[in-house]
């Protein structure tokens, strides 16, 4: 009677056991169910990008305008929902631009940026920053930070940074900024991005 040989997984593990004499014995084990030769079955299925975006879209985020001055000394920037604090000591923040962004190379070249926390009435800022070319700030009022970066008028807060590191992360970069200056500006409701749309936020003052 013939037997069918199965193919093994490329991901192997180490199994530890004890022999009859009480000695420790180890051997490699297969993490995938044996299948006929020539057939490879992967335990991990590819994630559909649309489903990934839909599920992650249920996580609400704030909206930050990351601004800088380009090589021609014109203000430019991009709106991101991936801004986050990283470290208190030293003070570090981060944002994650798409590698296809035409604006991030200008931010990287400048070596500095200002993170402007947008308010609920500043949706137009996002539309302005989505423009192509040098007209992003045509309808945006701004003033320079201590380092000369664009601070958007009416933002809740601004955080003036130097680029500390840029890390590769799939189809995005992880940009770490070292905070040099920061300030609260307008005590308004923040702009929130949720399920592909913008809105405001009102805190429950009764919550503990």
Automatic annotation (TrEMBL):
Keywords: Monooxygenase, Oxidoreductase. Belongs to the non-flavoprotein flavin reductase family. Gene3D superfamilies: Electron Transport, Fmn-binding Protein, Chain A. The lineage of its organism: Bacteria, Bacillati, Actinomycetota, Actinomycetes, Mycobacteriales. It comes from Rhodococcus jostii (strain RHA1). It holds the Pfam family Flavin_Reduct. Residues 56-200 form the Flavin reductase like domain. This is Possible monooxygenase. It comes from the Bacteria. The keyword Electron transport does not apply. One of its GO terms (molecular function) is monooxygenase activity.
């Amino acid at each position: 009677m013939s037997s069918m040989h199965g193919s093994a997984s490329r991901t192997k593990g180490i199994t530890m056991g004890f022999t009859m004499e009480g000695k420790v014995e180890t051997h490699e084990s297969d993490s995938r169910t044996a299948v006929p030769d020539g057939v490879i079955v992967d335990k991990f299925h590819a994630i559909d990008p649309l489903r990934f975006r839909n599920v992650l879209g249920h996580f609400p985020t704030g909206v930050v305008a990351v601004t800088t001055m380009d090589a021609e000394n014109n203000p430019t920037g991009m709106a991101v929902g991936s801004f986050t604090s990283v470290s208190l000591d030293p003070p570090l923040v981060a944002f994650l631009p798409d590698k296809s962004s035409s604006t991030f190379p200008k931010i990287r070249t400048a070596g500095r940026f200002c993170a402007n926390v947008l308010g609920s009435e500043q949706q137009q800022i996002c539309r302005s920053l989505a423009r192509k070319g040098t007209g992003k700030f045509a309808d945006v009022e701004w003033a320079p930070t201590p380092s000369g970066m664009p601070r958007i008028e009416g933002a809740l807060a601004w955080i003036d940074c130097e680029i500390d590191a840029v890390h590769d992360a799939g189809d995005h970069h992880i940009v770490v900024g070292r905070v040099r200056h920061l300030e609260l500006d307008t005590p308004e409701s923040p702009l929130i991005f949720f399920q592909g749309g913008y809105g405001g936020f009102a805190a429950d003052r009764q919550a503990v």
